[in-house]
């Protein structure tokens, strides 16, 4: 994106909101304080009950035990105030384990709030995730994206949501998104994480509508805040950050918190750019159920924090000037009734069904199966039907051209597609695969990103949850390392929310050896890592036609996909093929039998397929060569059927031998085709050495045509 609004002037020191009597009156009218008090009291009651029935207590029946408890005591009042400002139907929230008061104020039912920590069926995870790691899919109001257990990982998906707001409003012309914001919550320790800085860079460079809400209780489990940022005050430290409004104050003072939060939310909603607000709050509890605070907090410190409890201050602020004593008493009675009813309903829910535990790792589009929040809807996908029949007589294209044409076509037919990554926009990618696309589709749809892979993938997740189809490029396979956390969380997102949410994204990732060159950074393959991760589809096309079909399938699909672009195929004409057409699709998990043979099955994928084909040439029609095309899912049937016929199997890949994907195939063949085998299953692969630079070293580690042929020969004569 190039056309940013003018930067907010550097703000100098952050400050608290200044108040005038007029502002006070407007503020008083703006907040429904009874509601805020109700949500706070509900949150307190939940914490009270959970803390007194946790697993350390005797004589509580097992089925009434919260296995892992996180209290929000002390953080609750400010969150309830914040929640009352999150009112736009397209507001998107990314939160963490201490954010339950906010969720309650956004519509989380008391029953669900209880049932999930109790591990009961239904609710936001169907017993799969820690109770307070929650979410709130909401088609008519603010959405809380699925939380994650790893601190800091909440930030970049929120930046993605905020960028999606701008995309819907500015590019798709949907004015129902005008004025929406992304809100992210984090503790003060989370400001030390990569995710925080990555999101801050994205939000400030793109001037996104994003509010960072830092609740500073001074402790990250036991570590003090001045270890997370010098002096312990992130708002002060960021006061001179360009394009960022910073504010801070006392989160125990309801009136001051309300004024600060209203100012920040208004700033962000009005399109002036991101804001960060830091509120100090006490942690009136241990870090979590298993923590007893011994060793890092003295009784005096615990007592001093107890004096700062914001709940009595809220009562004092409201009674008698805004609520009478009697109204407060009625409110407490109402909360007690509602909480008891919610508790009973939660306890009456059955335990989750063990038979369902493996459901929802991937999308289930069978008729009647519920639709998740996120990704293209089924109806949208139905308008993008493709064909598995290639067109006749397409021109011969190189691998890179095939990918480019597919991206171009999908950008044309689906306005929700965005293509981005480092250098992807103006330059057209360091491999030039996206060359010309920005010119054709604008810098809002095809764009460069900041240099943060965590930011690229986390942002993609937030965009996908908001209903877009992000196609992210990781410049080289090795540079997916900094994004590992976001990639892993993306893959499990559907499963851990029991299909309430999904984030189908496509990650294009060049890797593997190049034409006569290699090195440990640009030539990593290591695809097995993604096959091992949950929830991902992994495509490893060996040629241009398969690249078209698989990439289109991924971009019209409902599951996140790693799309591997082999460097040697990008750099040579090895993978050239006839262009199979603008609507060509290949389903995942369908191998291609490249040549039929009688005596041995050779299984491969990616660029090594071409070396296997050359090796097979020496053996006439004795070799059956299978190009797997995708390793997650992989076509077991095609491999087993072939091996049962030939009686021999060699697997060839570029990834490490040890625990490479060949080991998975070998184990499957050894078990399920054992009685048909005439020789041991063999593998040829790189022998657990990083890719070297000099061509003679590269040749020494990569399986050569000659080596593959020798191993085929050995098996045939075994
Ligand atoms: C990436 C990661 N590292 C470590 C942890 C373990 N951990 C859980 S909470 C926490 C402290 C977080 O403190 P803060 O962000 O201030 O939030 P608070 O708990 O105080 O609300 C740590 C270290 C984690 N969950 N994720």
Structure description:
The chain is α/β, with parallel strands linked by helices and 718 residues long. Helices cover 37% and strands 13% of the residues. It has 25 helices and 22 strands. Strands 11-10-12-13-15-14-20 form a seven-stranded mixed sheet, sandwiched between helices. The chain has a six-stranded parallel sheet with strand order 2-1-3-4-8-7, sandwiched between helices. The longest helix is centred in the middle third of the chain and has 24 residues, at 325-348. The termini are far apart. The model is unreliable at 1-18 (pLDDT under 50). The site of thiamine diphosphate has 15 residues, from strand 3 and strand 5.
Secondary structure: elements and pairs:
Layout (H helix, E strand, L loop, with lengths): L20 H10 L2 H20 L23 H8 L8 E3 L5 H6 L4 H6 L27 E2 L10 H17 L10 E6 L6 H12 L4 E7 L2 E2 L2 E2 L9 H4 L7 E6 L3 H16 L5 E6 L18 H9 L2 H9 L6 H24 L29 H5 L13 E2 L1 H15 L3 E5 L15 H5 L4 E3 L4 H13 L3 E5 L10 H13 L9 E6 L16 H5 L4 E3 L4 H12 L5 E6 H5 L5 E2 L13 E4 L4 E5 L3 H9 L6 E5 L2 E3 L3 H11 L2 E8 L4 H12 L9 E5 L8 H7 L3 H12 L2
Parallel strand pairs: 1-2, 1-3, 3-4, 4-8, 7-8, 10-11, 10-12, 12-13, 13-15, 14-15, 18-19, 18-21, 21-22
Antiparallel strand pairs: 5-6, 9-16, 14-20, 17-19
This protein binds thiamine diphosphate.
Category by helix and strand content: alpha/beta
Query: What's the rounded overall pLDDT mean?
Result: 94
Radius of gyration: 28 Å
Bound ligands: thiamine diphosphate
* Number of helices, counting only DSSP H or I runs of 4 residues or more: 25
Spatially, the strands of the biggest sheet line up as: 11-10-12-13-15-14-20
Bin the helical content.
25-40%
- Which overall shape is indicated by the principal axes computed on the Cα atoms? elongated
Q: Give the termini distance in whole angstroms.
A: 61 Å
Number of strands: 22
Largest beta-sheet characterization: 7 strands, mixed
Uncertain stretches of 5 or more adjacent residues: 1-18
Strand proportion: 5-15%
């Amino acid at each position: 994106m190039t056309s940013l609004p003018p930067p907010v002037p550097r703000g100098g020191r952050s400050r608290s909101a200044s108040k005038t009597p007029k502002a006070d009156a407007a503020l008083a009218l703006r907040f429904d304080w009874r509601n805020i008090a109700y949500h706070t009291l509900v949150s307190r009651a939940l914490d009270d009950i959970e803390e007194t029935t946790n697993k350390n207590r005797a004589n509580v029946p097992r089925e009434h035990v919260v296995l892992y408890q996180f209290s929000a005591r002390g953080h609750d009042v400010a969150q309830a105030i914040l929640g009352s400002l999150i009112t736009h139907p397209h507001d998107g929230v990314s939160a963490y384990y201490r954010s339950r008061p906010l969720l309650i104020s956004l519509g989380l039912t008391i029953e669900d709030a209880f049932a999930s920590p109790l591990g009961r069926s239904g609710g936001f995870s169907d017993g799969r995730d820690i109770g307070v790691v929650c979410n709130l899919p909401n088609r008519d109001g603010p959405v809380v994206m699925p939380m994650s257990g790893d601190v800091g990982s909440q930030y970049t998906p929120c930046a993605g949501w905020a960028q999606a707001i701008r995309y819907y409003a500015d590019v798709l012309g949907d004015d129902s998104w005008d004025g929406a914001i992304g809100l992210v919550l984090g503790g003060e320790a989370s400001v030390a994480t990569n995710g925080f800085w990555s999101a801050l860079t994205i939000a400030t460079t793109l001037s996104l509508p994003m509010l960072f809400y830092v609740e500073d209780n001074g402790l990250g489990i036991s570590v003090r805040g001045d270890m997370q940022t010098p002096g312990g005050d992130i708002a002060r430290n960021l006061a001179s950050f360009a394009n960022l409004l910073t504010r801070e104050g006392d989160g125990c003072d309801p009136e001051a918190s309300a004024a600060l939060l209203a100012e920040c939310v208004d700033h962000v909603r009005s399109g002036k750019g991101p804001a960060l607000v830091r509120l100090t709050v006490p942690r009136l509890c241990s870090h979590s159920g298993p923590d007893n605070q011994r060793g890092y907090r003295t009784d005096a410190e615990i007592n001093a924090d107890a004096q700062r409890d914001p709940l009595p201050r809220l009562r004092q602020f409201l009674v008698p000037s805004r609520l009478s004593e009697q109204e407060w008493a009625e409110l407490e009675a109402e909360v007690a009734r509602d909480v008891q009813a919610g508790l009973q309903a939660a306890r009456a829910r059955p335990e989750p069904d063990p038979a369902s535990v493996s459901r929802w790792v991937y999308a289930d589009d069978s008729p009647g199966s519920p639709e998740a929040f996120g990704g293209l809807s089924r109806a949208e996908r139905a308008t993008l039907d493709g064909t598995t029949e290639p067109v006749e007589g397409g021109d011969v294209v190189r691998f890179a051209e095939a990918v480019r044409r597919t991206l171009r076509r999908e950008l044309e037919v689906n306005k929700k597609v965005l293509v981005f990554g480092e250098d992807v926009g103006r330059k057209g990618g360091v491999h030039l695969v996206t060359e010309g696309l920005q010119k054709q589709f604008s810098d809002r749809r095809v764009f460069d990103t900041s240099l943060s892979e965590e930011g690229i993938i986390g942002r993609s997740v937030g965009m996908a949850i908001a209903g877009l189809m992000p196609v992210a490029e990781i410049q080289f396979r090795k540079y997916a390392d900094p994004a590992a956390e976001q990639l892993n969380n993306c893959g499990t997102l559907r499963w851990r929310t029991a299909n309430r949410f999904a984030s189908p994204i496509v990650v294009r990732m060049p890797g593997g050896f190049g034409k006569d060159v290699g090195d440990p950074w640009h030539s990593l393959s290591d695809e097995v890592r993604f096959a091992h991760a949950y929830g991902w589809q992994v495509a490893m096309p060996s040629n241009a036609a398969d690249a078209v079909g698989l990439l289109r399938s991924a971009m019209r699909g409902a599951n996140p996909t790693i799309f591997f672009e082999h460097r040697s195929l990008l750099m040579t004409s090895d993978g050239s093929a006839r262009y199979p057409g603008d609507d060509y699709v290949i389903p995942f998990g369908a191998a291609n039998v490249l040549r039929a043979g009688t005596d041995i099955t050779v299984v491969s994928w990616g660029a090594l397929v071409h070396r296997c084909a050359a090796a097979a040439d020496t053996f006439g029609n004795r070799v059956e060569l299978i190009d797997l095309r995708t390793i997650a899912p992989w076509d077991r049937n095609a491999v087993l059927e072939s091996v049962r016929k030939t009686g021999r199997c060699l697997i060839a890949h570029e990834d490490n031998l040890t625990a490479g994907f060949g080991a998975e195939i070998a184990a499957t063949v050894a078990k399920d085709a054992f009685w048909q085998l005439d020789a041991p299953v063999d593998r040829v692969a790189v022998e657990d050495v990083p890719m070297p630079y000099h061509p003679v070293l590269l040749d020494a580690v990569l399986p050569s045509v000659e080596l593959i042929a020798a191993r085929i020969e050995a098996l045939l004569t075994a």
